[in-house]
Each structure stands twice: as C-alpha cells, then as structure tokens.
Amino acid sequence: MRPPRVAAPLLLAACLALLADALTRDTGGQFGMNLPVWVGVFMIATLTVLQKAGQKASRQGLVLLGSALGLACLFVVRDAPPTLKFLNFTAFLLALTLGAATLRFPDFHLSNVLPMLGTALTGVIHPLIGPFVLLERFPWQKLTLPASASKGWVTGALLTLPVLAVFGGLLARADPAFAHLFTGLLKWEPGDLFTRAFTLLLWGALAGGLVYSALLASGPVGHGAKGEKFARLGLTELGLPLGSLAGLFIVFLLVQLPYLLSGTLPDGLTFAGYIRRGFGELMTVAFLTLALLLGAHGLARPDLRRNAAYRALNLAVLAPLTLVILSAANRWHLYHQAYGLSETRLLGAAFLVWIVACLGWLAYLLWRGDLRRFAYPALLLGFMTLWVTTMLNPAALIARNNVHRQTAAVTNDLRRTPQRANVWELLNLGADAVPDIVRNLDTLVPGCADQACPNRQDIINRLHDDYDAPRDPRAWNASYARAHHLVRQLPPPTPHERGYSD
C-alpha cells in the first residue's frame, strides 16, 4: 500500500537537514552538544507528528530512540579513545535506525536476529530512497496559486531586492561587523557553493531516510510474517556438529589443564606469546558459538526445541565453553599484569562482559526452548555495555593505571623490570587522559639523554597543539573543556618548529 500524500514528513525532513547543517557547519566534523540536540529535536518532532495523526508510538521504538539519545550524550560528557568513540557512534546510528523503523509498529518486536539485521540493512537503504518518496508523496497540487497571486509574489520579490541592497549597504558602512556579515552573504565562491550544496544533500538524505522510516515506511523487515520456513532439522543433523564442537572444547581444556595448574608452558611457548595470541581467538570462539547455537535453534524442528536430548546437547556445548571463557579471562588478567592497560585490552574486557551476559541469557532461553526474546535484550545489553564503559572514563583509567605502575615500580612473575608509561600513547587516548598527564608531567619525562626520549617541552607543545583552541559551542564537550582549561595553565609552547613525534 502506498503512503498517503502528506506535507509534514517532507517539511520535517527539510527542517532537520537545515538544523543538522547549522549545528555542524564549520565545526571541523566534531560532535558534542550538537548530536543530542539534533536527536532530541528529531524525537520530539516525529512523536508530535504521530500524535497529531492519531498513531501511538511503540514502546520498543521509544526505548531504542532513548538509547540513541543516551549514546549521543556520551559525545558531550566524554572524549573517548578513538576505537571506543567509533563503536559508540556505530551503536548510536544502529539505535537511531532501529528506533525510527519500529516507532509506528507496536506489534512488531526485534526478538529474532534475522529481522533485526534486515531492519538495520533497510535503514541503510532508506536514505537513498526515502527523500524521493517524501518528494513524491508531498501534496504539490495544493501549492498551485492563481495567476494574480503568482504575479503579486514576483512583483514583491523584485521590489524587495533593491530595498535590501540599499539599506543593507548603508548599515554595512555604519558597522564593520555587520559589513562582514552582509558582504559574506553576497560573496559565494563556486567551490564553497558546491560544498554547501553537497553537505545539505547529505543531511537531507539522512534526515529523509529517518523520517521516511518513522512516518511513512510500510514496516520493518519481517513485519507481519508468519511461520518458520527453515525449521526442518532433527536431532541427528544438529547433534553431530554440536556434539563435535563440545568434544573439541573438552580436548582444548584438557590440553590447557597442565600448565594452568602448574604455571609452566610447553617448550618454545612464552607467557608473552601465550597471553598475546589467546585472548582474541577465544573471544572469537565464544561469539561464533553464540551465533552457531542461535542458528541451530532456528533450523531445529519446533517439536525438538523442548526435547530433553536437545537441551542436553546445548548444555554439552555451553558447559565447556564456560571454562574456555574463564581461560580467556585468565589470559586477560595475565596480560594486564605483564603490560598494564590499553584501549584494546579494556575493550576486550568490555566485550568479555557482554558475551558472558549474552551466553547466560541464551542458556536460559534455550532451556525454556524459546529464543524469540533473545535478540532485543542482547542488543540493549550491548548498548549498555558501551555506555557504562565510556562513562567509567577509560582514558583516565588507562593513564592512571599505567602511571601508577611506573611510579610504584610494579614487578611480578611476568615482568621483572618496572614498566614506563608511554606518554605518546596516553596523549592519543583523548582529552580524558589530559588531567593525569598534566598531573604527572615530570614523572612521564624519563631522565635519559637519548633523543628518542620524550622531552617535557615537547609534551607541552603537543598538549597546546591539541587543546589550545576552544571548541565551537555547538560541539562543546566537557572533557575537552576541562583539558583546554588545564593546558592553558601550562607554560607557553616554544615558537620554533616542534620536534616531537607520536
């Protein structure tokens, strides 16, 4: 069924595109206060349009849009390390897309993984088709004006131009600031005009896609679908691969057991190699096992899902997997003992927490024989994990931990000599690490004559380069503002060419 001809969606998308351009223009691509402001306006506007149309917003859509707003607020409160910032922005786009797509459909639930993936993929396509649908569904015939009215508009516009030109020129001569604004409006470089037009088109596509999803689209992928077309495998077909995987886990644990108990490793394997190589692979194993069990349940016959043998088969996979995850956690602990904290290690710990929570939820639903409620809570758990991880201030946590390891001269069985904190790596973590760097500036400068060693003035120069300029108020960020205030109190940068490297 084609959407009705209404003016509100196109007008709303146009206003949102102009607002996005106004909030981000000349900010250097930085996100801060502008991101939650735009999301808040989008939510209020779409909910208002739905209410006037007599439609009720779904609870699921509201929760997802609220999650998007919460993730957007992270860009105001924290200046997260680069990889975590990318994950936060990706999660924000996913929550915004899914929330807009499900806002008008209270009877649709993102309970299964495939409908959720399909809805997310169509959300990527909607910015390409949504604006054209909004244009096509706009009631253009209502804008037709009588000939006399059209003539009046043209005449009025022609009379307006000389009035603005004359009085604007006089006012420009009276005030330099107004003259700069007035002449800036009249000067258009072809390159600037093209860039501005392309940026507006980009924002228009994004806003049009979201508005189309929220107000006009026929429904998310899988909406109204009935039946399970692929549920056809029996216990034998599923038992062989799952039983083999359980056996593989058990063999792996038996091989690990001797040096987990004794603390000694096989010949040719060092603790550094053991802990470096193992954690990522074991986390991948846990994630793929989660996907495999979900797929097996989706392919199983409905009558098999509550069968005791099938439940025992899932338990046979999950029980040794629990010990595999404990082995991964042990490797993470050893890695931290040997090398301290880094962004990758901290994100690995966050992923470990999320995968354990998802596997626990999966085990509970598998035992009940019904996975229809798995995907949506798992998605919200992912958003919550990212939100909590960012709010814990990982950059400051990493800087504080590594500086403490240096000042306390931490040694253990895995590290015979104290570890020095790498100040350039700490600087790359973002503004949240700056307070600890400034507080421990003398500690971070080693007492060595080697030119490769960081110089105190080089660090100060780098801090001034990164945080001297105040941010645009539209992209205001609390962590950057705090770092800017601290850096302005440091000695001035050297005027000559900087010699540091990161």
UniProtKB/TrEMBL annotation:
Transmembrane regions listed in the UniProt entry: 32-50, 62-80, 86-106, 113-133, 153-172, 193-218, 238-261, 282-300, 312-334, 346-367, 379-399
One Pfam family in the UniProt entry: DUF4153
Organism: Deinococcus antarcticus
Protein name (database record): DUF4153 domain-containing protein
Signal sequence interval, chain numbering: 1-22
Assigned keywords, A-Z: Membrane, Signal, Transmembrane, Transmembrane helix
